[in-house]
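Forwarding the complex inputs:
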Amino acid sequence: MPTALERTLIVMPALNEESSVGTVVHEVLSTLPGVSCIVIDDGSKDGTARAANSAGAEVAQLPFNLGVGGAMRLGFRFARENGFDNVVQVDSDGQHDPAAVTALVDELQHADIVIGARFAGKGTYVVKGPRRWAMTLLSAVLSRIAHTKLSDTTSGFKAMGPRAVALFASNYPAEYLGDTIEALVIAAKAGLTIRQVPTEMRERAAGAPSHNPVKSAVYLARAALALLVGLLRPSIPLPGDAS
Amino acid sequence: MTLASYILGVVAALLVLLIVIEMLRRRRLRERHALWWLIAGVLALLAGLFPKGLQWAAHLVGVQQPTNLVFFVSIAILFLVCLQQGSELTTVESKTRTLAEQSAMQELRIRELERQLLDKDRLSSDPDQG
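Prediction (whole assembly, two chains):
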């Protein structure tokens, strides 16, 4: 029986991350024994694919930018076609600590989706203003429909078990914020169990979340719209349940 | 304004909103394409429900006939939707072109790989015959 990590595929969506993707891939492969790693180059204009490839990752190059949701769906389909049970999404900018993947994958024994959460007591990640309100709103509503406390619903650090991979391989939203918010709504409505594990985020290699109030307000509106649309839409049955 | 025309205005606006939301719900329309229609529906509903508000808005921007403001805003929204669709079509066309190029180049690579495989087969089977 292969270990849980050997049955796990790390999917890393990357857009113009030439400077960091190599280090992250290297770190993932050296800290997680037996794990496989695919980088989805989401239409980068720089040497992202080359850097990822020479660090030892499998690389899939999209001919143009599809967004994180589109890139992740390719990752889920690749996992299905190559017999991986679990998928872990890790950012290619180095903000997620690969050592925490083990904790997420362990927790998959009790859940279908495990979120690496930034605000669950570990680490020092601070957000203010409309962005803060958006996160509070999302966390309140999603916690309710998932029947568990979720404090960081827009985290890009997530582990998916076999049932979630099967569901997402055909139904992963490509809309902005859809890959986080609507995906969780789809999963909760399909009856999947969602848990969170506190994780510490590292300083991003480049750039910080925007503190421009107008942008934050637009973010709040878009998050609310994504949530509303997700809730309005009919639930998608789990593949295989129908038969 | 008669009661019938008041009802007509409100019902028409509600119908627009209902159709757009139902299409969104059934994934027949993406959020970004639905946005202008949602704005149009909400504006039409407001104008239908509160004709006084429409008169106030017309007065505010110096339009003498409130209905002319309705026509102006409707045309402006239609214009914006057309413009957005033109821009989306341009993006889709350029993506199709990229895909076609990629498919042609992959065809070339596959043919090259097949040729190399064939050559290798011939090389390895030749000594047996000789």
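The longest helix of chain B spans residues 66-129.
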